[in-house]
Design goal:
The chain is built from six helices and no strands. By secondary structure, the protein is mostly helical. It is rod-shaped, with a radius of gyration of 27 Å.
Length: 125
């Protein structure tokens, strides 16, 4: 049986990998064998980081909200349940945007929520 070398299919495969590796410095950007490994690892990182990106943004919104609420004398962990109890359906992203761009509207929301904030039980002596 004759040996099959792949021909155009093989060169397309190599070209696809090297195109994805363009921009990598040194060997990983030009040498097929090394590029193959680096492209695979880059794909793993991209998949993982698409999920981590969502976590990071949520964390940022919570940090911004916490800072804005602290300035108004309200605790974040009491504010969120009170927000649900008040029937306000704004997510953390919108609330943090309001806190930055429209403080007056954010103040109005905080005032609306304040009656629903539960005070912590006193600690036993």
């Amino acid at each position: 049986m004759p040996r099959v070398k792949g021909g155009p299919v093989h060169s397309r495969k190599r070209k696809r990998i090297l195109r994805r590796a363009s921009g990598f410095r040194g060997g990983p950007g030009t040498i097929y064998r090394v590029a193959k490994e680096f492209v695979a690892k880059a794909g793993v990182y991209a998949y993982r980081d698409r999920r981590q990106n969502k976590r990071n943004y949520r964390s940022l919104w919570i940090t911004r909200l916490n800072a804005a609420l602290k300035a108004r004398g309200v605790h974040y962990n009491r504010f969120i349940p009170a927000l649900v109890a008040a029937g306000i359906e704004l997510n953390r992203k919108m609330l943090s945007e309001l806190a930055i761009c429209d403080p007056a509207a954010f103040d109005a929301i905080v005032e609306q929520v304040k009656p629903f904030i539960k005070q912590p039980a006193p600690k036993p002596a």
